[in-house]
Design brief:
The complex is a heterodimer. By secondary structure, chain A is α+β, with helices and mostly antiparallel strands. In chain A, 19% of the residues lie in helices and 25% in strands. Chain A has one domain: SH3 type barrels, CATH 2.30.30.110. Chain A is globular and about 60 Å long. The N terminus of chain B is likely disordered. Chain B has a domain of 64 residues. The chains are: A alpha+beta, B mainly alpha. At the A-B interface, strand 5, helix 1, strand 6 and helix 4 of A face helix 4 and strand 1 of B.
């Protein structure tokens, strides 16, 4: 699923790149944001803060490679990321096995899958001994000025096949027919 | 102390550059002829193309000046200009077919929970 170390593109970001130790901004609690206003303009917010420690962790690039290609400067306005979650934190082990088995939906034409998550197997540069999942429901974006920071923290890159499988799952996560999952 | 009424005066106006716009029909027979002549000239495809070229050049000139000589940085990803400059993405029929093939798939995501604080 991952490219070998010597095949990783170091000069640019691509869809499916794993970024290590980045500030994870997904799933922000809007109720927890504190807004400040200057005394002269009480109706205008000048700054905001969140009174909790920042959460740092790993993330995967969801933006299409074309969208963030440096040579395509017009399109590079922001980079979409999804945080990785340690599969070890899953509360039901049997579900984990089911999730892993149904991960690559394009390989076995499945009728059901865990569309919100894309499973990433263990990798020597990542700390997840049993693998991790990219959580599409907690995606966020950073501005293009963050490009260098993200590139500097790029530690792994998915293969073309894996990127295609992830993109399909991401598309279906939003596009699937709205049916309540069977409990 | 100044008269508040003076605040409503346009102090930039000068009698020499104020154009008194007539509110009644001022068209005379000579004006009508001139107007008809102008319309005839403008209806000429060659003149129309020439005028079109002049307008397009002016727009291009303004665009180049804005893009190349403007000191204003354009780094706002929510700026409408980014949208205006985008080109449509090509969509392959095979990609759509591939997604539609799985559109009836059931999502089991709700069956799994993670004890890592993200879902609180």
């Amino acid at each position: 699923m991952y490219l070998d170390e010597d095949k990783i593109e170091r000069s640019g970001l691509r869809q499916g790149d794993i970024i290590s130790n980045v500030h994870l901004l997904g799933a922000i609690n809007l109720n927890a944001i504190l807004y400040s206003s200057p005394a002269s303009s009480p109706n205008q917010y000048s700054s905001w803060s969140v009174p909790v420690p920042p959460k740092f962790g790993d993330a995967i690039v969801l933006s299409h490679s074309c969208e963030i290609a440096l040579e395509n400067k017009i399109k590079v306005t922001s980079i979409i990321l999804a945080p990785l979650r340690d599969i070890h934190a899953a509360t039901d082990r049997s579900r984990v096995e089911e999730l892993i088995d149904s991960n690559l939906i394009d390989r076995s034409h499945l009728q059901a899958s865990y569309l919100k998550y894309f499973y990433l197997p263990p990798n020597i540069v990542l700390e997840y001994s049993r693998g991790a999942v990219a959580d599409f429901s907690k995606c966020f974006s950073t501005r293009k000025q963050s490009y260098e920071i993200l590139l500097k923290n790029k530690v792994a890159q998915l293969s073309e096949d894996a990127i295609s499988s992830m993109a399909l799952k991401l598309a279906l996560y939003f596009h699937r027919i709205d049916v309540i999952a069977v409990a | 102390m100044s008269d508040p009424a003076e605040d409503f005066h346009d102090t930039r106006s000068r009698s020499s550059n104020v154009i008194a716009f007539p509110l009644h029909d001022t068209t005379s027979s000579s004006d009508a002829k001139l107007e008809a002549l102008m319309l005839d000239v403008l209806a000429d495809p060659q003149v129309e193309n020439r005028l079109k070229g002049i307008v397009e050049s002016a727009i291009l000139d303004a665009w180049v000046k804005t893009r190349l000589f403007s000191d204003e940085p354009r780094d706002d990803p929510f700026d409408a200009i980014y949208v205006s400059e985008l080109k449509s993405d090509k969509i392959k029929a095979s990609d759509i077919s591939r997604i539609l093939l799985y559109r009836n798939i059931s999502d089991l995501s709700g069956k799994i929970k993670f004890d890592d604080g993200w879902d609180e």
